[in-house]
């Protein structure tokens, strides 16, 4: 059976058992197997009135919801290629991706958003809101879903490359048919032996947009197994929603775990008394032990034993609830200290590594063999190796067939039948991989968003003619920062830089906005080793040389 047939069969068997929840404050909107099948049939009925054919492309532009999932499945069931887009993206960028994918229809969460996009794209495809898709009368039971050949495209997911231009990554049925059993098998390892006949559904909390490959694969995996996917609808209330959801596991990005770690420390500080000292000493003992740097002092070890007995169980219960088996983290590198902090609390953190081009996943931590700082072994059926340069190369049935309408870039990425990831890494004797850096200049924020620096730098340089160089920084940070060099005689003022940043930020999505800057009094030169002989920036050398200035910037010291 194909993954789509498995999902439809599972929904049929689920009947009135819940499979999806939308968390809306203290209220939950449930959807069981039978109602979800009815929504899918209703959407399929609508699609058939739209003169659409198998192989046509349709954009799905909306936040996560039960209806998003129903329309996604309906489009695939009709053989239509889905182009999911991020509704928080700048309208100009959305317009560019819509134009590039040339869809037959645009399914949008609301008419105002579509109207805003149309200001940047006069030749818009026909638009239908999600409300209109599901406004009709109930449809009769749908026929079996379209049966895709492995080579048939299912989706085009846009991702930014080093040029800054979004590229459409084609994923086909063969990619997803391979990936879903792999992710499900690893989750079986996490959840342990379970009787299919009487086991309670596992609870999965989720807040990542479905237009991202990893989130989409999680959605399809969850719908193919005995689980309930609980959808967050308000990122500002994740802590409260987590307490309601009480999940068995959920996917995270590093910035979220770093934020939770900081809040735990702040809460302990606010308790006062001996609690802050106990936590500090316990963490010192735990990190020393697991970083092979000794066991800390006897007093540190005593504090760790006390915290394990009294403090950590209360923290686990207050933060993640009683059911959590593990946090799953991907999209960007996770600090080893952060991973060890949660492990100290008794909360396992499993890491995932992959790209959209690898159907979201290359490696998955084995829940029983987690090595902090590593991202696990390659999933079954795929091969990974390093080139002489240290770049990670991957091949297997999870590798995308190509970029939409970009044959030259496809050929370059898939040279010698290996996909060139652009990441640097190494595997240990057990096959567990460690990601050591980027072969390319792409900035990866701790939220998992990728930002190509050159287009923003070029625009800022245009707005700041007095500047000698402008350099974006922010790898593994929560936001972008900017270094600006100038000759002392140029008279570049902080207000000039802020005005340029404000002008650039105005048309950018939140994750591309620059939040801080530092002005450096002398330009980078070839002689000081910060420029190539062609005058190009040596980014790693600049980051290393300017570490104090960068740290000060993120501490929000005066520019």
Concise overview:
This protein is of the alpha/beta class. It is built from 18 helices and 24 strands. The chain has 3 domains: 3-248, ANL, N-terminal domain (Rossmann fold, 3-Layer(aba) Sandwich), CATH 3.40.50.12780; 255-322 and 325-438, ANL, N-terminal domain (Rossmann fold), CATH 3.40.50; 452-554, GMP Synthetase, Chain A, domain 3, CATH 3.30.300.
Would you mind describing this structure in some detail?
The structure is a single chain. It is built from 18 helices and 24 strands. With 559 residues, it is an alpha/beta fold. It has three domains: 246 residues, ANL, N-terminal domain (Rossmann fold, 3-Layer(aba) Sandwich), CATH 3.40.50; 182 residues, Rossmann fold; 103 residues, 2-Layer Sandwich (GMP Synthetase, Chain A, domain 3). The strands form six sheets. Strands 2-1-10-9-11-12-13-14 form an eight-stranded mixed β-sheet, sandwiched between helices. It has a four-stranded parallel β-sheet with strand order 4-3-5-6, with helices on both faces. A four-stranded antiparallel β-sheet has the order 15-16-18-19, with no helix packed on it. A hairpin with a 6-residue loop joins strand 22 and strand 23.
CATH class of the largest domain reads: Alpha Beta
Write down the CATH topology of the largest domain.
Rossmann fold
In helices, the fraction of residues equals 25-40%
Kindly provide the radius of gyration, computed on alpha-carbon positions and rounded to a whole number of angstroms.
25 Å
The total count of strands amounts to 24
What's the number of domains?
A: 3
Amino- and carboxy-terminal Cα gap: 60 Å
Determine the structural class based on helices, strands and strand pairing. Answer: alpha/beta
Shape call? globular
Identify the strand order in the major beta sheet. 2-1-10-9-11-12-13-14
- Fourth CATH level, the homologous superfamily of the largest domain: ANL, N-terminal domain
Q: How would a crystallographer describe the biggest sheet?
A: 8 strands, mixed
């Amino acid at each position: 059976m194909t993954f789509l047939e498995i999902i439809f069969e599972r929904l049929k068997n689920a009947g009135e058992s819940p499979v999806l929840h939308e968390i809306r404050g203290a209220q939950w909107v449930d959807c069981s197997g039978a109602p979800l099948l009815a929504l899918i049939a209703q959407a399929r009925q609508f699609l058939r009135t739209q003169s659409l054919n198998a192989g046509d492309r349709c954009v799905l532009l909306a936040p996560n919801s039960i209806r998003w999932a129903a329309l996604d499945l309906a489009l695939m069931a009709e053989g239509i290629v889905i182009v999911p887009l991020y509704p928080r993206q700048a309208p100009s960028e959305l317009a560019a991706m819509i134009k590039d994918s040339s869809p037959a229809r645009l399914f949008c969460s609301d008419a105002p958003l579509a109207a805003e996009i149309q200001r940047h794209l006069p030749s818009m495809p026909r638009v239908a809101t999600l409300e209109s898709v599901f406004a009709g009368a109930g449809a009769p039971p749908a026929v079996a879903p379209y049966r895709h050949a492995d080579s048939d495209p299912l989706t085009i997911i846009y991702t930014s490359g080093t040029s800054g231009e979004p590229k459409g990554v084609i994923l086909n049925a063969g990619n997803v048919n391979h990936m879903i059993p792999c992710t499900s098998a690893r989750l079986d390892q996490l959840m342990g032996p379970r009787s299919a006949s009487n086991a309670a559904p596992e609870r999965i909390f989720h807040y990542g947009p479905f237009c991202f490959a990893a989130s989409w694969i999680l959605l399809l995996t969850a719908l193919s197994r005995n689980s309930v996917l609980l959808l967050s609808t308000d990122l500002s209330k994740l802590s409260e929603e987590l307490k309601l959801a009480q999940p068995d596991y959920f996917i995270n990005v590093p910035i979220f775990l770093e934020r939770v770690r900081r809040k735990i420390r702040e809460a302990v500080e606010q308790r006062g008394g001996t609690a802050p000292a106990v936590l500090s000493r316990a963490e010192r003992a735990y990190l020393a032990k697991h970083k092979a740097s000794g066991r800390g002092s006897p007093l540190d070890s005593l504090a760790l034993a006390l915290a394990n007995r009294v403090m950590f169980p209360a923290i686990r219960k207050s933060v993640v609830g009683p059911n959590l088996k593990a946090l799953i983290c991907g999209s960007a590198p996770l600090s080893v200290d952060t991973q060890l902090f949660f492990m100290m609390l008794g909360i396992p953190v499993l890491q995932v590594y992959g790209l959209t081009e690898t159907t979201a996943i290359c490696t998955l931590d084995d829940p029983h063999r987690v090595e902090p700082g590593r991202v696990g072994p390659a999933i079954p059926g795929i091969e990974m190796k390093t080139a002489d340069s240290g770049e990670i190369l991957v091949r297997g049935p999870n590798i995308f067939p190509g970029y939409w309408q970009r044959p030259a870039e496809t050929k370059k990425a898939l040279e010698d039948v290996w996909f060139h990831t652009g990441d640097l890494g190494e595997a240990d004797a057990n096959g567990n991989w460690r990601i050591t850096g980027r072969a390319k200049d792409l900035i990866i924020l701790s939220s998992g968003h990728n930002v190509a620096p050159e287009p923003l730098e070029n625009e800022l340089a245009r707005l700041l003619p007095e500047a000698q160089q402008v350099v974006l920084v922010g790898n593994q940070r929560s936001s972008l920062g900017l270094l600006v060099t100038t000759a002392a005689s140029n008279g570049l003022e902080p207000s000039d830089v802020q005005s340029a940043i404000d002008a650039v930020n105005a048309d950018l999505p939140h994750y591309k906005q620059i939040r801080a800057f530092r002005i450096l009094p002398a330009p980078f030169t070839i002689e000081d080793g910060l420029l190539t002989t062609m005058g190009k920036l040596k980014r790693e050398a600049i980051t290393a040389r300017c570490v104090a200035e960068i740290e000060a910037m993120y501490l929000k010291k005066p520019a």
